[in-house]
Amino acid sequence: MASVLAVRELRKFYPKVKAVNGVSFEVEEGQCLGLLGPNGAGKSTTIEMLEGLVKPTSGEILYRGKTLDANYRERVGMQFQHTALQDFLTVRENLNFFRSLYQRTMPLDQLIEACHLEDYLDRDHRKLSGGQRQRMLLAIALVNDPDLVFLDEPTTGLDPQARRNFWELVRSVKARGTTVVLTTHYMEEAYLLCDDIAIMDHGRVIARGSPQNLLAEHFNDSVLELPAAEVAGREIDLPLVHKEDRVEILSADVNAAVRKLLDAGLSLAQLKIRPRTLEDLFIQLTGKELRS
Ligand SMILES: Nc1ncnc2c1ncn2[C@@H]1O[C@H](COP(=O)(O)OP(=O)(O)OP(=O)(O)O)[C@@H](O)[C@H]1O
């Protein structure tokens, strides 16, 4: 597979902080790379350097084997976290404004259909709901029919339904063959959308791989979960992890663990058994809970 983007030893130092401190990775054609990490890990700074908005302190970014040039801006799309859109413009006016900035553009009707904006075209963009606004920002990112698109926390602040709808849009963007680089705080989003994940902390990549491989590499156990009240005061021959109102048991042999719980006389009516998730991996690697 051809690499669309190659990043080598990328660094961005500010006077008091090493925001990005030696990051290297490649993004293959048509793939979705997710940058994950706790607050301040360096995700946005990385993506801003990839977008050409922030100048690296050192390191190299290659687009299709070449350093970034004027052609790069024409070929990439960016969905900003906080976009300074002009007041009073409608959705249609915004799309037309951004289309006027590029030589190659996606036909307006195709853009509107792709991002489901039909019903809001003549609305002032400040009057859009969170989900509608993100769809408009995605449409802006796609105006130049890019072959590489950057999405920085595209679903932060959306309700679960709007988030799911947005995931469908990202899938359809991928289905067009567009390469995607996104940052997210939502592990489910990363699991469902990303072919490849780079977990960042303190300006570095601390784990890298497909969601499935990362989980297989780090875990061979499952999580059994019971209400704390059910477990309280009982002798159980298993390592218990106490979490607020529940207790977790990590076990590579679920059948044996369940037998021990039965032997201890517990009711398993509220037992939950789940496989390990990216969220577990994230907490294990960074020691931090996710921001929701
Ligand atoms: N322009 C700047 N000047 C000084 N420090 C900065 C600047 N931009 C970012 N930083 C610092 O660099 C570090 C990385 O920030 P960055 O925004 O890249 O992290 P992030 O992983 O995107 O975090 P979040 O999830 O909160 O968006 C932080 O400590 C931040 O305060």
From TrEMBL:
The keyword Cell membrane applies. It is found in: Cell membrane. This is ABC transporter ATP-binding protein. Belongs to the ABC transporter superfamily. One of its GO terms (cellular component) is plasma membrane. Keywords: ATP-binding, Cell membrane, Membrane, Nodulation, Nucleotide-binding, Translocase, Transport. GO terms for molecular function: ATP binding; ATP hydrolysis activity. It comes from Stenotrophobium rhamnosiphilum. The lineage of its organism: Bacteria, Pseudomonadati, Pseudomonadota, Gammaproteobacteria, Nevskiales. InterPro entries: AAA+_ATPase, ABC_transporter-like_ATP-bd, ABC_transporter-like_CS, ABC_transporter_ATP-binding, P-loop_NTPase. PROSITE patterns: ABC_TRANSPORTER_1, ABC_TRANSPORTER_2. Pfam families: ABC_tran. Residues 5-227 form the ABC transporter domain. Its main location: membrane.
